[in-house]
Amino acid sequence: MTDIQAIYIIDKEGTLLYTYIPEGQEHQESQETPDNLLSGFINTFQSLALEFGDEEMKEAKIGEASYFFTKDKLSGISIVIMSELESKLKRIHPLLVKIKNLFITTFFGNVYNEEAKKYLFESFEISLEKLLKESSDEKVLDFFKGL
Question: Best label site of 10, 82, 111, 123, fewest CB within 10 Å?
Answer without folding.
Answer: 111
